[in-house]
Amino acid sequence: MSAIFNFSSLITVLLLLICTTAYLREMRPAIFDGGMVQEPGQPLIKRPGLSGFCWKLSRIGERLSPFVSISCILMAIHVLFVRD
């Protein structure tokens, strides 16, 4: 079954994407910025497409890292012991 139609698989894929993008951004901070730097007082930088989506996921992973790590542990327990 596709991960889109199974809620448990969808959450697992989203958690993996968040963790992966946060790790990549930690290793290479400008990887999702595309060379764009926001100066103070300038309007917000729009990040369209896949790089913008990955940038948002990495921000979630950075700012909510305790919650993401607890979610990953709970999902691992669910996948290993609960799911058929």
Structure keywords:
84 residues, mainly alpha, 64% helix, elongated
Report, as a whole number of angstroms, the end-to-end distance: 13 Å
Content of β-strand: under 5%
Main pleated sheet: none
Derived from helix and strand composition plus strand pairing, the structural class reads mainly alpha
- The rounded Rg comes to 15 Å
Instruction: Write down the secondary-structure element order.
Output: HHH
The backbone outline, from C-alpha atoms, is: elongated
Question: How many helices in DSSP terms?
Answer: 3
Average predicted confidence as pLDDT: 83
Query: Which percent range fits the helix content?
Result: 55-70%
Low-confidence stretches: none
Task: Report on this structure.
The chain has three helices and no strands. It is mainly α. The chain is elongated, with a radius of gyration of 15 Å.
SSE layout:
Elements: H1 7-27, H2 49-63, H3 65-82
What's the short story on this structure?
This protein is mostly helical and 84 residues long. It has 3 helices and no strands. It is elongated, with a radius of gyration of 15 Å.
